[in-house]
Specification:
This protein is α+β, with helices and mostly antiparallel strands and about 230 residues long. Helices cover about 50% and strands about 15% of the residues. The protein has ten helices and nine strands. Strand 8 (about 205-210) and strand 9 (about 215) form a beta hairpin. The chain is globular. GO terms for molecular function: cadmium ion sensor activity; DNA binding; DNA-binding transcription factor activity; lead ion binding.
Length: about 230
């Protein structure tokens, strides 16, 4: 009988944990903070309080809640404390929630800035219309297996030829289709998505807009996308 009770308790612990995470994300101010952290960089509590439009003390309480549920991590450096998402899995969860929530909003009523819809960061990889178009080309050229979670030999060959460095020892998915919240289609996620974004940044093909998720494609980036994927920006 005791073992049966323990089993029930163990089963309940998962649901209770899920409820706690959902509750931590249920506040609009905390959601604004999490969305801001989707740019992949670390933010101070003061910066996040401005984003959420709340007092500094309120922001600290919100961040403590997010930290306790392991949604964000905290790094102390000098007099400042910096917060960032706890990992790519949290970023994928937020992006998926954006996609689900976006479906509830009629398209004509969207207030998403056009530039943000075109190109933005999704934690550590590229998102938006351009990213979706790039992924479509990669899929059509057979760079991924049918499940989308494994690169083909052709895909690895093309990444290597382009100078994109993949992490063969990563614990995350080698690649995956990440649901794009504004386009409602997939862009490239996983290690391949992160590696491709890093490569584009190092090449100077794109630049980040400081303090926001927006990304700008440079003139050399436009030329590269035209040459590599036959995409006009």
């Amino acid at each position: 009988m005791l073992k049966q009770i323990e089993a029930i308790d163990d089963n309940d612990s998962l649901e209770l944990s899920m409820a706690a995470v959902a509750a931590a994300m249920s506040d609009p101010s905390r959601i604004k903070m999490l969305c801001a952290l989707m740019d992949g960089r670390a933010w101070t509590a003061t910066e996040l309080s401005i984003v959420a439009d709340v007092a500094a003390s309120t922001a600290s309480a919100h961040l403590a809640r997010l930290f306790s549920e392991k949604l964000v991590t905290c790094l102390s450096q000098g007099r400042h404390r910096y917060y960032r998402l706890a990992g790519h899995d949290i970023a994928e969860l937020i992006e998926m929630m954006m996609g689900i929530s976006w479906k509830r909003i009629p398209a004509p009523q969207t207030r998403a800035p056009l530039q943000l819809r075109a190109t933005r960061t999704c934690y550590d990889h590229l998102a938006g219309e351009i990213a979706v178009r790039i992924y479509d080309v990669m899929v059509s050229r057979g760079w991924f297996e049918a499940d989308g979670n494994t690169m083909t030999s052709e895909g690895r060959k093309q990444f290597q030829a382009s100078g994109v460095v993949l992490d063969t020892k990563t614990r995350r998915k080698a690649c995956c289709g990440c649901l794009d919240w504004s386009e409602r289609r997939f862009h490239l996620g996983g290690d391949a998505g992160a590696a491709f974004f890093t490569h584009c940044e190092q090449k100077g093909w794109l630049t980040r807009v400081p303090g926001y998720r927006e990304v700008t494609i440079t003139s050399s980036g436009k030329a590269a996308l035209r040459r590599l994927f036959d995409i006009e920006v």
